[in-house]
Amino acid sequence: MPITSGAPAHGNPAHLLPPSWTSVISAWLAEDTPSFDYGGFVVGAAPATARLLAKSPGILAGVPFVDEIFKQLDCKVEWLVKEGELVGQNGKQHVATVTGPTRNLLLGERVALNVIARCSGIATKSDSLLQLLRKAGYKNTLAGTRKTTPGFRLVEKYGMLVGGCDPHRQDLSTMTMLKDNHIWACDNNISTAVLAAKSAGGFAIKVEVECQSLDEANQAIEAGADVVMLDNFTPGDMKAAARKIKEKYGGGVRGPLVEVSGGLTEENVRDYVSDDVDVISSSSIH
Q1: What pTM, to 2 d.p., does this model score?
Q2: Active-site residue (options: 139, 147, 198, 244)
Q3: Average pLDDT over residues 69-77
Q4: How far apart are CA 191 and CA 160, in angstroms?
């Protein structure tokens, strides 16, 4: 987990969640039971116990969401493993026990399973791709993208963090990314687009530009872009472009960041490993 690994943080990923996040849980429960709970009428409210089982290997993620789901239903969750741990390596593994009224356990069951399965799947995929890159010699950042499920971004970005990946920008307000359509809408003038973005966002908002060539990357950097994304480059062209950018503008904290993206998966991502690449981003992890 990048939040605690090698960093002087006193918290954990759950402490990143915004104050309003519990309202998301309430909306999930309301979506699943907007009117009468007929099944709940059948089973009643006698005290009961349920076991949460991991049936396949993976990284456990989504604990705060499951806790809150059952908290809102007056149930209690006792975890037997910690978030971020590998579970299910030897078949079914008992990872948590939930106690409460029978009706309430069943009200929360499907919502909780959907959330923890999705979040754990993303954490597992993130960890898998990150380990593959580390074995290939890549020492920098692996990130997700903004291609998340509408209404479920908080869970999916959380899963990336637990799996060891950078979640990338949270939304359109946290960083300005000028993609090809933005540039086309500015008469294909990268400098104009970057200057407008810097003017609007001020010193606090970084500007990234999606580039289709080294020439576009140079234009973006010279206009003041903080990050250039080399999008859908071949491995050879990408490595050559990234090297020239670092040679011309420098690396470290003073130079522009180079991000590589576009169709990267476990099958081809090793071909894009380079010391000149600061960020590899892939939607395949989510």
Answers
A1: 0.93
A2: 147
A3: 98
A4: 33
280/260 Cα distance (integer angstroms): 5
Which strand (E) or helix (H) includes residue 59? Answer: strand 58-59
Please check whether residues 187 and 278 belong to one and the same domain: yes
- Helices then strands, counting H and E runs in the chain, come out as 9, 11
* pLDDT tens profile 111-158: 999 999 999 999 999 999 999 999 999 999 999 999 999 999 999 999
The residue from 96, 116, 131 where one domain ends is 131
Please give the backbone phi and psi of residue 142, each rounded to the nearest 5 degrees, phi first: -105, 130
* Whether residue 147 lies in the annotated active site: yes
Q: d(Cα 166, Cα 164) in Å, to the nearest integer?
A: 7
* Domain carrying residue 105: 13-131
Compute CA 143 distance to the chain's CA centroid, rounded to the nearest angstrom: 7
Tokens (6 digits) for 71: 């908290």
Domain count, the chain: 2
Structure tokens at 92: 């079914």
Q: Do 281 and 185 belong to one domain? A: yes
Q: Residue ranges of the alpha helices (H) in the chain?
A: 21-32, 38-43, 63-71, 102-135, 153-162, 180-185, 190-201, 214-223, 235-249
Residue type, 96: A
Four-CA torsion 67, 69, 70, 72, nearest 10 degrees: 120
Residue 186 has pLDDT above 70, yes or no: yes
